[in-house]
């Protein structure tokens, strides 16, 4: 029997055990917490790591622990040829679950529970792929490792513990995304700009303006209080512009003036074209009001000029750029807070690989400074593993063999677990078009897809580490 068929039969006969192992991990609330001895990211992640280590040892794998921040289960002799990188920590659960998020529930071929898709389920899938290769006795020329981290969701402080001891394998994939494969991740600019002013007296003026709560989320809502104008004047401007800006609005008398609130549509900052930014829409409405010339008016009008609501690609900042490998630059004004003392803003930009500090970060800062803001930015370089390399081609071939679908390389504006690992890619295990709802309620994974992913990963291990 050929290797592929042996892998497929082994996988089909281990589905029950695999679900039971996913259930063990899902039952542990491994949300980041207070550091304690032996639990660098809190009790929950440490308990999940204990359980995973026990599971790996039970299957006969050697396991090494790195300060209990991460552990690695490995198999095979000789040089490490492949690392798989997955994580055991989870994002906390919000409202709206139809099942207990810390109990694995199966309904109509779907598994439900926190972490089934991000990333406990995928970790177990990779583990079973490794177990499959071991139990089938496939001959290997090198070794494979499953690195299990416990802090992917809150800063990736786990990986330095591992890489302080080990070097990365020549090939790494992370089962913490979608198929087919992500080899390119955009760079990231996290910018801050501000202006301060003395107490303002001029009227009419914007007395306060705020929106946004997290640098990497495009906010739907923003609100402002305008002094010295009547509600009718404010409404007239809104009536004219709100539809174009794709927001709904509300005015009321409050705070000694007119309070204006707008509502758009929230989304992740890496895909701003899917949302409607409440801050930039409100800035445009405020900029169109007949305000007195004073510092808050100048700040609001500068913001409306540099971050027009319809521009989520940095065109007004002069940095709208794109390339074939990694797509187009995105620019999101994600947090704004203006009050009697000044204004502070945060921006989030995802930059294609053609963008550099010189042609992108510096020009943005210069434009902001030119408008009277003080500005600074952190910049993290893009990640780019060549799509033509042997490793990527091998992974895509395994994907194609199992699915019959065409494998191709993709880019993402979001950072994955391999962002700082040379030669790393994100590879599955969610299939294109499937809504797993990670970080949200009713997180899910299809059992059939999970089995397909085991078959793909086992083939990949055999191809990369096999004789
Ligand atoms: Zn994840």
Mean pLDDT across all amino acids: 96
CATH topology of the largest domain: Aminopeptidase
Largest sheet: 8 strands, antiparallel
Instruction: Note the gap between the termini.
Output: 17 Å
Q: Could you say which small molecules are bound to this protein?
A: zinc ion
| Class from helix and strand fractions | alpha+beta
The value of Rg in angstroms is: 25 Å
What's the CATH architecture of the largest domain? Answer: 3-Layer(aba) Sandwich
Tally of discrete structural domains: 2
* Helical run tally: 11
The total beta strand count reads: 26
CATH class of the largest domain: Alpha Beta
**Lateral strand order in the biggest sheet:** 14-15-13-11-19-20-10-21
Q: How would you portray this structure in words?
A:
The protein is 31% helix and 28% strand. The protein is of the alpha+beta class and 467 residues long. It has two domains: 3-185 and 384-465, Zn peptidases (Aminopeptidase, 3-Layer(aba) Sandwich); 187-380, Alpha-Beta Plaits. The strands form seven sheets. Strands 14-15-13-11-19-20-10-21 form an eight-stranded antiparallel beta sheet. The chain has a six-stranded mixed beta sheet with strand order 1-2-6-3-7-24. A hairpin with a 2-residue loop joins strand 19 and strand 20. The mean pLDDT is 96. Residues 87, 118-119, 152, 176 line the site of zinc ion.
């Amino acid at each position: 029997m050929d290797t592929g068929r042996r892998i497929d039969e082994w996988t089909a006969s281990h589905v029950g055990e695999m679900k039971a192992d996913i259930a063990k991990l899902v039952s542990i609330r491994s949300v980041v917490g207070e550091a304690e001895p032996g639990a660098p990211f809190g009790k929950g992640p440490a308990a999940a790591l204990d359980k995973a280590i026990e599971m790996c040892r039970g299957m006969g794998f050697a396991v090494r622990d790195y300060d209990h921040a991460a552990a690695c289960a490995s198999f095979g002799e000789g040089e490490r040829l492949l690392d798989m990188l997955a994580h055991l920590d989870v994002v906390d659960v919000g409202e709206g679950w139809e099942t207990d998020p810390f109990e694995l529930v199966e309904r109509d071929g779907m598994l439900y529970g926190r972490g089934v898709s991000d990333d406990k389920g995928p970790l177990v899938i990779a583990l079973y792929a490794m177990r499959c290769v071991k139990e089938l006795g496939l001959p290997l020329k090198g070794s494979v490792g499953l690195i299990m981290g416990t802090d992917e969701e809150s800063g990736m402080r786990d990986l330095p513990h591992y890489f302080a001891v080990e070097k990365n394998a020549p090939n790494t994939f992370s089962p913490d995304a979608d198929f087919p494969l992500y080899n390119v991740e955009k760079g990231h600019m996290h910018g801050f700009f501000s202006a301060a002013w003395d107490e303002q007296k001029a009227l009419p003026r914007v007395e306060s303006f705020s929106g946004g709560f997290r640098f990497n989320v495009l906010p739907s809502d923003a609100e402002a209080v305008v002094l010295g104008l009547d509600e009718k004047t404010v409404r007239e401007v809104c009536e004219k512009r709100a539809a174009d800006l794709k927001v709904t609005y509300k005015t009321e008398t409050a705070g000694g003036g007119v309070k204006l609130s707008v509502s758009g549509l929230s989304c992740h900052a890496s895909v701003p074209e899917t949302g409607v930014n409440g801050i930039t829409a409100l800035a445009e409405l405020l900029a169109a009001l007949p305000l007195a010339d004073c510092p808050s008016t100048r700040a609001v009008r500068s913001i409306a000029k540099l971050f027009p609501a319809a521009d989520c690609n940095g065109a007004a900042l002069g940095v709208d750029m794109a390339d074939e490998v990694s797509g187009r630059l995105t620019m999101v004004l994600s947090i704004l807070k203006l009050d009697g003392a000044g204004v502070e803003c945060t921006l989030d930009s995802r930059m294609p690989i053609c963008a550099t500090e010189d042609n992108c970060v510096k020009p943005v800062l210069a434009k902001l400074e030119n408008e009277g803001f003080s500005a600074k930015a952190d910049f993290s370089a893009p990640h780019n593993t060549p799509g033509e390399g042997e490793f990527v081609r091998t992974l895509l071939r395994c994907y194609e063999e199992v699915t019959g679908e065409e494998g191709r390389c993709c880019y993402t504006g979001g950072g994955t677990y391999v962002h700082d690992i040379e030669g790393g890619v994100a590879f599955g295990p969610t299939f294109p078009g499937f809504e797993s709802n990670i970080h949200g309620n009713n997180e899910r994974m299809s059992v059939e897809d999970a089995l397909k992913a085991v078959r793909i990963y086992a083939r990949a291990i055999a191809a990369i580490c096999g004789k």
